Amino acid sequence: MKSGKFWAWLTFVLGAAYFFIPLIATLEFSMRMKRGEYSFEAYRVVLGDARFQESFTFSVVAAIFTIILGVLLVVPTAYWIRLRLPQLRPIVEFVTLLPLVIPAIVIVFGYIRMYGSSSPLPFLASGLGTNALLVIGYATLALPYMYRAVDTGLRTIDVRTLTEAAQILGAGWTTIIGRVILPNVLIAVLSGAFLTFAIVIGEFTVASLLNRPAFGPYLQNMGANRAYEPAALAIIAFAITWGCMSLIQVLSRFAPKSANRPN
Amino acid sequence: MTDISLSGPSAAGKTIPPGARAMRLPTQWLGVAPFIIFALMFLILPTLYLIIGAFQSADGGFTLQNIADLAQPTIVAAYWISIKVSVASSLLGAFIGLAIAIAIVRGGLPNWTRSAALTFSGVASQFAGVPLAFAFLATLGRLGLLTVLLRSIGFDLYQHGFNVLSFWGLTLTYLYFQIPLMVVIIVPAIDGLKKEWGEAAATLGATQWQYWRMVVIPVLWPSFLGTFILLFANAFGAIATAYALTGSSLNIVPIVLYAQIRGDVLHNANLGYAIAFGMIFITGLANVFYIWFRTRSERWLK
């Protein structure tokens, strides 16, 4: 057993080294902009850059719309499948997993060909339509994560009893979903939302191919033209991802474990 | 088969009159209609459009010419390097991730190592794309910290044939999200191994090796394999990291497709569809293998 513990430590330490060295190196590199001393100059330059602010704001707004669309799409569906159409579950689960199998670049290629300006549904003919298509594409990419999060949340509540109680009190479907089901799975929905945010904020492929002024293409452009700023941006992006994942962890502490089971 | 034809009418006749049944069905399905329409419009039809396009000539007739045209050297080379990078990064990622997961769950390490590793894995598994490429350029690029440090102690990575803009460079970079993804998914599966199973095996006189071979591996196998396939698809479709890391000096398939979408570099629109079809075909094939393996292993588990 003692040798087992040695190997466990060795694995852990080697793993930690692999994961921390790039972070340390990036941090160090990002602080070397001023010759001969460590400074936060690169961060100052990046954060003061108007294009950074514009593209970052654009991506934040896109992420918020993606989350709204994802919630509107997933919550009623997952709820209805649990309540009335359990036989559809395998099919819907299969569909929600498809974005993990079909690469994002293929999906967006399909959009460009199907929704071009001369097609019956010309999303790409206007800026607003293209933005809408970007949000739709992001919602598709985030679908596997959002669906899983919401479905896990629904598993912990007694959907049927809650629905019947609400119906007896005279609630319609919108009220049931919006004021009974959604608050009960809010923590799961928020987990899905933060994960969506982490995926969307720096996404490159879809934004770039749809020619949107998003954060991902901005990052790529900086990488091709600057030396120290990309390192600072990498640290910022890592901090954002870290923030989203920590929020999910914090939220999961408030999540009910098994509300509908007596034991 | 006979079950369905028998139970259908009898169940309907017993409980609900046929008229009411016909009234009820559509409203049931209305609840999932938005989702189905969304999935059709923005996931399934765009993909089908490309697949059909791959088998069409420029004037719309059926042809296999586009698929045959994939055989040109640059495209074959692109598929080959993509498959190599995806297989290498998912195999290494799967095994290293499994080793780390076993170490933190079963290795007798203090509790903080487990929560630290899991929290970090959650973050790192989502830390991909362009920023990841920046991080590895700052580490292993020509002026990267590790490159400079190693050179100062007399070992020049680049003199020894290493280049971050290469097959191994890209694989090493992909591992940064592949390993954590494996850890995140496989830890719950290892947690699912009950302590009693180990005790039962020991009581029956099994050696540690027999316990692993006959209990642990068969139980973990389906989730391990499933995650491996997921890692493969993950690497195969990824473009942002490679594009930001290597520009277009390493021609993996997604980068070729990206260039084709942007500017029709192949001068043949339908060839672009064929490349996309090839990508779906490969990730789809991987999943067919996964389902096949899983049904086999589940049958064996019974």
Automatic annotation (TrEMBL), chain A:
Q: Does the keyword Ligase apply?
A: no
Question: Which protein, by its recorded name, is this?
Answer: ABC transporter, permease protein
Cell compartment(s), UniProt:
Cell inner membrane; Cell membrane
Q: Which InterPro entries match?
A: MetI-like, MetI-like_sf
Which GO BP terms apply?
transmembrane transport
Annotated membrane-spanning segments are 7-25, 56-79, 91-112, 124-147, 185-210, 230-251
One Pfam family assigned to this protein is BPD_transp_1
ABC transmembrane type-1 domain: residues covered: 52-249
Q: Does the keyword Chloroplast apply?
A: no
Q: Which family does it belong to?
A: Belongs to the binding-protein-dependent transport system permease family.
**Alphabetical list of SUPFAM superfamilies matching this protein:** MetI-like (SSF161098)
- Which keywords does UniProt give here? Cell inner membrane, Cell membrane, Membrane, Transmembrane, Transmembrane helix, Transport
The way it spans or sits in the membrane comes to: Multi-pass membrane protein
At the top level, the lineage of the source is Bacteria
Task: Give GO cellular component annotations, separated by semicolons.
Answer: plasma membrane
UniProtKB/TrEMBL annotation, chain B:
Please, which domain of life does this record's source organism belong to? Bacteria
Q: What is this protein called?
A: Sulfate ABC transporter, permease protein
Give a GO biological-process term. Answer: transmembrane transport
Residues annotated as domain ABC transmembrane type-1: 79-292
List the SUPFAM superfamilies hit by this protein, alphabetically. MetI-like
Cellular-component GO terms for this entry: plasma membrane
Transmembrane spans: 29-55, 75-105, 117-145, 165-190, 211-233, 239-259, 271-293
